[in-house]
Amino acid sequence: MTTLRQRVDRRRQLLELIKMEKCHRDTLDDVLGKNCDELIEQLQHRVEQIDQTVQEHTHLRERYEAFRQVQGVGRITAVTVLAHMPELAELSAQQAAALSGLAPYNRDSGKKSARRSIYGGRKAIRQVLYMAAISATRTNPVLKPFYQRLVERGKATKVARVAVMRKHIRLLNKIAQNPDFSLAS
Description:
By secondary structure, the protein is mainly alpha-helical. The chain has 2 domains: 2-51; 58-177, no CATH class. The protein is 68% helix and 0% strand. It is built from 9 helices and no strands. Helix 8 runs antiparallel to helix 9.
């Protein structure tokens, strides 16, 4: 699992380098711009090599394919969850939400009652689930109406998205626990 996590993290680092090089290219002359283009091409090739990781881990392939059946969960989300939460199948729904940093915690003190907020957990999971939630709120036949109901009730857009993220991680946890789990049920 460590190597999978390292590869996923390295992929993210390479994508950051590509983004930086693209910004540099815009400020350089043609000769140095061509140098940047060559480096970007090399970095993209390395990203493609890392993308083959799931195929090398045959024991993860079934879970990966099951995760991909959830609308909104793409290739990167599935691989990142597999890499950064290998214990997912062994957690309760609440533990999975807390470990991913999606559990609401209070900040009450004495008579003061503050707004609940999420924090902590694994940042990489939160980042990919946020992008999955954006996709799901547009296309998922279950999560889209859920999101719309929350917004109609006056919840902030970001709060509603976090609720969708939490539903995603709970669903992925259920799928990890029960490989025969059907999305139709």
